[in-house]
Amino acid sequence: MLFQQQPYKDTTVAFLFLNHRRKRGTKMKNKGLIFTVVALFLSITIGFFYEQRAQKPATNPNEAVQYTVGLLQFVSHPALDEITRGVKEGLQERGLIEGENLTLLFQNGQADQSKLTTMSQQLINQGSQVLIGIATPAVQALANETTEIPVILGAVTDPVGAGLIADMENPGGNLTGVSDKAPVLEQLTVAKKLLPQAKTVGILYSSGEDNSIYQVEEAKQAAEGLGLSVETFAVPSATEIRQIVQVMASQVDFIYIPLDNTIANAMPAVVTEANKTKTPIIPSVDTMVQEGGLATVGINQFQIGYQTGLMAASILKGEKETATTPVYTFDEGDLIINETQAALLGIEIPAALKETATLIGGEEE
């Protein structure tokens, strides 16, 4: 009996041993699977963490946040150059300093419309977080290339009329900024005080600038309200400015120039031709008075740029949003009179104007 039962016991023992090894193997497999899943999860989590960290600005107070601003200027002339200088000062005022925490990418179209699109694309591709356009054509070029990156307009007289924003108080998109709208009525009123015998004003502007066309209509209404007759002279290209000014000088008592980049860029030529017949020029910008204009009530160009820089910094830092930030407009301008030019033209400056004006000297041609 003992001999017959032994195989049974051995078989039972063997079965239990194999069953134990099978369970142990299964547990080992389960542990291996769990370890693999945990390792994979940790790998994904760590990778995601580092990716997010690379995408976000540094939050360590000892590690400076880096900013990139793209700046597109339509053309070089004293007025726009002053605006650009003001932009840099405004950014610096808010702690954005080139070479430290700010990369300022600068492009200048030099009045070549065909270059503005390419330059806008370059500024976007170089990682600009905020874009600033100086003058209407520059802003239009930037706006055509992006609806996501904030665009801050600098020196745009009529952003609504130019199709850039929906409303001055609530722009409603990725654009807002600073308007350089000039006090046209005040400018022409000063002209009347300096030139009491004047009967006809000639408005000189570029037919290629939307900004100027809007101002011409406003100037016509203001001039007619002051009892002046109005003649308009549209310049199709910069090469024709001298010839057109020669024609104007024989037909008008003085020349009025609205905010116009094409004419501003050619101001020395305008002054040269107008001085030949001693025809006074009333421009809209203080720097153009310095170049030989008689007088203006103008907004300081540096201040336009300074306000633009402050607004760009606020948008960049996330303190404001373009869609809900009103376009900044100036309440009043400064009276600027060129004494040298007045003497050249034989014009006596009324004492009442001298008391309130900034008197400067111009360039005699």
Helix and strand arrangement:
Layout lengths: L1 H54 L11 E7 L4 H16 L8 E7 L4 H13 L4 E5 L1 H10 L5 E4 L20 E4 L5 H11 L5 E7 L3 H16 L3 E7 L5 H9 L4 E3 L4 H5 L1 H10 L4 E2 L3 H5 L4 E4 L2 H16 L17 E5 H7 L5 H6 L1 E3 L5
Parallel strand pairs: 1-2, 1-3, 3-4, 4-5, 6-7, 6-8, 8-9, 11-12
Antiparallel strand pairs: 10-11
Helix pairs in contact: 2-11, 3-4, 5-6, 7-9
Annotation field: number of helices? 13
Amino-to-carboxy terminus distance: 138 Å
Assign the CATH architecture of the largest domain.
3-Layer(aba) Sandwich
* Beta-strand percent range: 15-25%
- Widest sheet: strand ordering: 2-1-3-4-5
Shape: elongated
What is the domain total for the residues?
2
| CATH level-4 homologous superfamily of the largest domain | Response regulator
Number of strands: 12
Helix content: 40-55%
Strand and helix order: HEHEHEHEEHEHEHEHHEHEHEHHE
Protein name: ABC transporter substrate-binding protein
Pfam family, one: ABC_sub_bind
Keywords: Membrane, Transmembrane, Transmembrane helix
Transmembrane segments: 32-50
In short:
The chain is built from 13 helices and 12 strands. By secondary structure, it is α/β, with parallel strands linked by helices.
Q: Can you walk me through this structure?
A:
With 365 residues, this protein is α/β, with parallel strands linked by helices. The chain folds into two domains: 67-180 and 303-324, Response regulator (Rossmann fold), CATH 3.40.50.2300; 184-298 and 333-360, 3-Layer(aba) Sandwich (Rossmann fold). Helix content is 49%, strand content 16%. The chain contains 13 helices and twelve strands. Strands 2-1-3-4-5 form a five-stranded parallel β-sheet, sandwiched between helices. A four-stranded parallel β-sheet has the order 7-6-8-9, with helices on both faces. α3 crosses α4. It is elongated and about 60 Å long. It starts with a helix and ends in a 5-residue tail after the last strand. The model is unreliable at 1-9, 11-18 and 49-62 (pLDDT under 50). The chain crosses the membrane at residues 32-50. This is ABC transporter substrate-binding protein. Keywords: Membrane, Transmembrane, Transmembrane helix.
